[in-house]
Amino acid sequence: MLRGIWIYVMIGTTICMVSFMLPLIVFAQQTGGLSGLIQLTYQKDRNKDIDAESEKNSFIQEYKLQYQGHVYSPRLLMYSIGGTFRKEDSDTEESRAGKTSTKTKSKDYNFKLDFIQGTKYPFTLFKEKVELPTWTIQPDQTFQTKQTSDRYGLFGNAFLGKGINVRYDIRQDNTKSVGQTETTDRRNRSFMFGVDSRKEDKFVDASYNYQHNFERSKNEFEAINDAKLSWGLRGKTTNFNMDMSYNDNSFTEFTTSTANMNLNYTPSSDFNSNFSIYGNKIEQKENKGYFTTFFGNTTYKISPYLTTNQNLMLYKSTGDFGNDSTQSLTLGLIFTKQAPAGITYSADTSVNGTAQQSNTTKDRNSMFYSLGARVSKFFESINSEANAGSSYYYYHSSLGGKTTRYAFNAGFISRFIKNMTLQSLLNFSEEDTIGDEIEGASSETKTRHLISDNSIGYFLQLGYRGSLDAKIGTIFERGTLPRTFRYANLTFRYAIRRDLSANAGLNFYKESVNSTRTITGFLGVEYKLRGIIMNLKNELWKERGPQGVKTRSSTFLQASRPF
């Protein structure tokens, strides 16, 4: 209790100090390009289970300062120097494990130099250093860990004219960790070089990236080579793209080579086709495999109401990872028509045939059929809509597998009463499934579901500054697993003034099978005072079930001043 009062007093004192310093900060911002952030955060979390209880208090301080300027002219040199200091103190008390305190301090220093920006040869130098020590204090011992990271590099471009651009990026990252676990000392270096040329109807992009990673404490070396090439051409009716890549890792001894080609052909608004080929080669120390996939899709609008589509997929793999192949073809037909009376009809059907071959399992040939229909009607006089639909699905496999599914759904939604929404949904499905025969045996399952969801929603605009949104409903499930859900939620938002707003919410949920009741709620307030933003938020979660009561609560308080 005393700790919470002390934190509130400290946050209030800091807010007052920032208010007094505000004129100086604004003056520095206007004259020197100074920006930053002062932020204090307090959070309290409580968890109570059937036989356990825990509480965590955290206080976080964060201070950022960044200065930007230029030498002679922004086109000559722009510079940015900054730093971030963050301190976190947290105390956790558990009924089983006792009390644990954690203290973390992080320091982040960075600077960036942007040379000759806006010219043909801009480049940037940067450096960043991060220190992150952590102390974990327990009743009988104290642990300390420290992580340091030092990053620096150079990147830039060279615009050579005629749409040609050369880019480069050189970086080094030294990271070291010392503490309770094993010590790590890792040095990562990377080099990237790329060239791209872009015009209205075509583009070419090529890049090479090399990474050199060395773990000094384990004397482990890793070299990664990554190369990419992309090419594209766009015409009036066609769009062609090709990508190729190569990646090699010396540590894992894993190499991949990929190639992808895609062609889109659209001669008119009624016809569209898309084709792509994907190839992949994987090499390991003792294994090698090749994988190829072809996708083809066409869509043709026969009439304003009728559209047909076809999908073809061919897959093949060879090598040490297995010799497999799959061929699949799907044909579909879609009908949609809207009548003047506000009635919309739609229907669709599709048929698919798939053949799979493998050197490790039995070959499988399968086929499925599907058929669906739907109708909806809008009643303008009562601002309501009714809809209904049904579907049928049948699947058969050469290994004895079979699936039959029937489904029906209907719905009604009405906004006839002002600010109120009445909704009723009904879904029914029945499915019989027989699995493929494996070693002379197969499995069989039958499921049936009837779900009814009925709800009433209410929305109220509270002047120009607030709103109230509420909903209550019940879901009934019958069939294989009968159960009932009851739910209700309420959301309130209001801007009391331009600088003061509040929001609150309450949710209730009850499930019949386990006799479980869940209640969640939150309350939040945001207040702005002379550039200072203060946020207060409380959240509560409570569940009551056959085994007892579980609760979780959280209090969040934050004051921040960006400038």
Entry keywords:
transmembrane, 6% helix, 1 helix, mainly beta, membrane, transmembrane helix, 563 residues, disordered N terminus, 76% strand
Structural overview:
This protein is mostly beta strands and 563 residues long. The protein has a domain at 342-469 and 476-481. It contains one helix and 28 strands. It has one helix spanning 2-32, and strands spanning 34-48, 53-71, 77-94, 98-115, 123-138, 141-161, 164-178, 184-198, 202-215, 220-234, 238-249, 254-268, 271-283, 288-301, 306-319, 324-338, 343-358, 364-379, 384-397, 402-414, 420-434, 444-462, 466-479, 483-497, 500-511, 516-529, 532-545, 548-562. The chain has a 28-stranded antiparallel barrel. The radius of gyration is 32 Å and the shape is globular. The chain starts with a helix and ends with a strand.
